[in-house]
Amino acid sequence: LRQLQEKVEGRPDRRARGHPFSRDILVAPLPASFWEISLIFDGSSDSSRHVRDFENMSVLHGYSNPVSCRAFLSTLRGGALDWFHQLAPRSIKDFEDFAEQLTNQYSSAVAQEKTYLTLMAMRQGEKESLQKYVARYNQMCLEVPTACDEVKAGGLIRSLRPGICRTSLAKTSARTYDEVLKRCKKYINLEETEAEFAKLEEVARPDKRKEKPNSPRRGSPRRNPLKNGSSKRASPRREGRNPFHGGREDRWQGRPRLPNGQRYNTFTPINAQMGEVLAAIEEKLESKEVTRSRIVLQYHIGTDGVERISSSCATYHMTIKYPVGENVGEIVGDQLTSRSYYQTTVSNNKQMARKQAKGGEQRPDRPGGSRSKEENGRQDKGKEKMDMQPGGEVEEVQMVEGKDDRKFRIGRELGESIRSRLVDLIREFADIFAYTAEELTGIEAKIIEHRLNIDLSVKPVKQKTRHHGAEMDKIIEQEVEKLLNAGHVKKIQLPEWLSNTVMVSKSGGKWRMCIDLRDLNKACPKDLYPLPRIDQLVDSTAGCELLSLMDASQEYHQIPLAKEDWKRVSFITSRGTYCYVVMPFGLKNAGATYQRLVDQIFKDQLGRNMEVYVDDMLVKSKMEVDHVSDLRETFPTLRRFGMKLNPAKCSFGVKAGKFLGYMVTKRGIEVNPEKVRAMIEMMPPASVKEVQILTGRIAGLSRFISKVAEKSSPLFKTLKKSSKFQWTEEAQKAFEELQE
C-alpha cells in the first residue's frame, strides 16, 4: 500500500503537463493567509517597475519563492500571458528566473533612465505658478536619483521664469537643495497672497457697464428696441425654465406693428457685442400670400436681446430659436448663401448709389479716402488679367470621335484643307493634353527641379492652425484628395515649416485652395532670372496670319520639388499635415523657375515661330499655310519633355487673340476692349490705393492715348504725401477726360 501511494504521488498532475513552471513550484502549498496581489501587467507598461512593485508586495505578505512565481503569474494579462504559455516546459526554476525572462522579453517597454540633463532641460511655463512648477521639478528629481544637491539647486534656479524669486536666488546662492526649496516657499506664499488680493479687488471693483452704459464697446442706444409687453427688464432665466415657453411677460409678442396695422417684414437691428452676422433667410409674411424671395439681414445680437425675447442661439448650427405664442420660430443662417447674395445685391446697390452721386450731387471728401471693403474688393477685381483668349469665333472638335468629354478648340474661319490637317495633327499628339490631374506626368527631375535655397539661419515658422468652418473643411479635404490622387502632395508627420490653407473664391461659386507661404518666402533669396519684356513679345507677334494660343495645365505642378524641401513646403488641414512633392503655387521664385524651363526646351523656336511668357505659349505663323508645320515642330518638343497642355484654355488656328493683355491681329496691336470698359466704368478714386490702380490701368492703355503723361499729371499730384487724401476738381476733370 505504501509503494502504491508513493507511485501515485510521484505522477505529475494532468494540468501540469507542459507547464513552464518546474514541479517544485507547482506542488508548493499556499500559506493559510494567502492574499492575491492586485497588480496587472499586459506588456504595454514598464516591466522592471512591475517586477519591483510585485517584490515589495510579496515581501509584505511573506511569499516563498515558489508561491511568488505562481502569484506573479496571476498578474499577467493579454500579450504577457500569451508569452508565458509559449515558454518551454519546466523552463522556470525560481522567481528570479521568471522575472529575468519577463524583463528581457519586454525590455523595449522599459522607461529610459533619466539623467541630470533632464533637469537641465526643464523650464517653468509662461502661465505656470511657482508652486506647481516646484512640485513638478521635485517629482522629476525623484526620478533622477544620481543627481547631487548642487545639480538640483542649479537646475531649479536656471529653469525658473525671470522674476523676483529667480533674482533673489541668483544674488545669494544657497548651499543645499533644501535651502533653495525653503526660499522658494516664501515666494510661493507671496504669489498666493497677491492672487487672493487680486480676487478681492475684482469683486470690489464696480461694474463698468453701469458707469458707462453707452461706451463704444457696448454700442449706441437702441433706436427701435424690441418690446416684450413690460417696461421692466426681463429677469434672469431660472433653473429648469423652458427656453422657448417662458412667462407671459418674457415672450416675444411678434414683430412690431406700423401705424396702419401692418407688420414689419424685416427685423430691426439690435446693437450688442457679438459682432456682425450675415444671414440669408426666407421672408415669410403673416398673410396667406407667402414670398419665397431671399433677403440679407445684417444685425447684432447680445445677452440683453437673448434674454428679452427668450431666444436660444446655436452658433455651430447657425440657428436662432425664439417663442412666438405657443409655437417656436427659427432663423436659419447660411454663410455661403449669404455671402453670394451680399455680393450680388448689396454691392450692386452701393455701385448704383455711387453712379447717382457722380451724375448729380458733388462727392463729399472722406477723411483719409476711406471706403468700404466691398468697394475696395470691387476695385481690385477690376485689375486686368493677362489670360490668353481667341479674338474670333472658335469651334469645339472631339479628340476622339464619339466622346464628348474630350474636346479641343480651333478657329472657325479656317479653310477646309488647313482645318483637316490641323485636326489630324492635334489628334496625332493627343497625349500632350491633360484633361485630369492624374494625366500630368510631370517634367523629369534631371531636366529641372525647383529648389528653395532657404536661408538656414532663419528659424522655421509653424503657423498657428487656422479654422475655416465645417463647410470649408469639406471643400479643403476634396481639394487635398485630388492632389493626393494626382501625386502632387503626400502625408507628412514631422514638417519643418508649416503653413495654413487659404480659400479664395472663383467665378461660378467655386473655391480655390491656396497655401499661405509668406513666412517661407521671406526666408528664400530672390531668383533674379529675367522675364521677357511684354511689349517686345507683343510687337513681335503682330502681323501674323494665324496664331495658336496654348496654356500649360497646372504649370507649376509639372515641375518636381527637390526632396530636401518637401518638409518645408507643408500645410495643415483639419485632417492632418501634408507636404508638396511638386512646385506649388505661391512660392516666390516659382515664376522664374518655370520661365527658365520654357526658355530651355523651346530655345530653338523662341523669336522665330513661338513666343513664351511663363505658362502662356503662342505659336505664330506669318503665312497661313505654314501654321500646321510650325505646330508640328512644337508638339514633339512638348511630348519629349512631358509637358501637358490644358485643352480648355488652348485655341489653335485663330486669326486674332488676346496675348498678355493686348489684342494681337494681322493688322497689328489693337486696344483691348476689356481694358477700355474697365476704365470707363471705374468710379472716381477715394484713396491713394485706388489712384494707384487707376494709374496702372492708364499705363496699360498708354500706347493708345495721346499725350497720356500730360493728361494724367493731375492724378499723380494726389499721390504726394499729405495728412489727408484729397480728390481735387482738377483731378476729377483729368479723370473724366481720360474716360472720354
UniProtKB/TrEMBL annotation:
Biased segments, Basic and acidic residues type: 201-214, 236-253, 358-387
Domain spans labelled Reverse transcriptase: 485-664
Superkingdom of origin organism: Eukaryota
InterPro entries: DNA/RNA_pol_sf, Retrotrans_gag_dom, Rev_trsase/Diguanyl_cyclase, RNA-dir_DNA_polymerase, RT_dom
One Pfam family recorded for the sequence: RVT_1
Annotated segments matching region Disordered: 201-266, 349-394
PANTHER family from the UniProt entry: RNA-DIRECTED DNA POLYMERASE, TRANSPOSON TY3-I GAG-POL POLYPROTEIN
Name of the protein: Uncharacterized mitochondrial protein AtMg00860
